[in-house]
Amino acid sequence: MSPARSRSHAATEYDPVTISESEGIRYLHFGSEWVQGAMRIRRPFDLEIDYTRDMMAWEGFIEAPEHIVQLGLGAASLTKYCWRQYPKARITAVELNPQVIACARQFFKLPADDDRLSVVQADAWEWIAHPRRKASIDALQVDLYDATASGPVYDGEDFYAACRKALAPGGVMTVNVFGRGWGFEDSFAAVFAAFSGRCEALDPVDAGNRIIVAQKLPA
C-alpha cells in the first residue's frame, strides 16, 4: 500500500451538500446521487443504514468506553447514537467540511456541543495524528468519503498506523470500506499491516459497504 494512495482522494475544495427525502427518510448527499447518510425523521437517533450498525461492532470488545471518536460526520448517525447510548462517554466527531456540520445540526438533529459532545472542523489525518491523541481513544469509527464515493479519502497503512497510535490499549477501530471498483483487499491489507494482523472483515451489506474491525493490543 503506497503512501500516495492514502492521500490521492483528499479534497481540495468542500463538496456541496444536498438533501433529499423519501418515505419518511432524509438523506444526505455531497452533490451527487450517492447517499452519505440517512435519518428516519420520526426516529432521528436510530441507525437507519445497515452498515452503520456494523460500525458499532466495537461494542463486542468494549463495555464502558470513555472516549468515542468518529472521523467523518456525514448525517451524524453514529455521533448521535453514541451520544445517547453512552451518557458517560465523551464523543468527538471530526469533519472537514463546515457545510456538513451545519447541515447535520439543522436537518439531522445533531445536538449542540456540550460537556460530552465535541464536533471539530479539521482534517481527519492531521487531527488523529496529533501527539495529543496518543492512546486517548477507546472506540474509533472511520467513515471518510467525498462526493465521488470512489473509495475512502484516506486508506493507507500510514494513516491506519496513526489511528492505531491514537487508540488506548485494547481500543478498537471500525472502518467503512466502500467504492466503485475500489480494492477491498488492498484496504484490508493496509489495516492488517498497521494493526499487526489484529483485524477482521465483516460480511458486506446489501449496499456494498464492508466494515473492517481492528484492535490495538492491550497493555
Automatic annotation (TrEMBL):
The active site is at residue 143. GO terms for biological process: methylation. SUPFAM superfamilies: S-adenosyl-L-methionine-dependent methyltransferases (SSF53335). The keyword Hydrolase does not apply. Residues 1-219 form the PABS domain. One of its GO terms (molecular function) is methyltransferase activity. It comes from the Bacteria. This is Methyltransferase domain-containing protein.
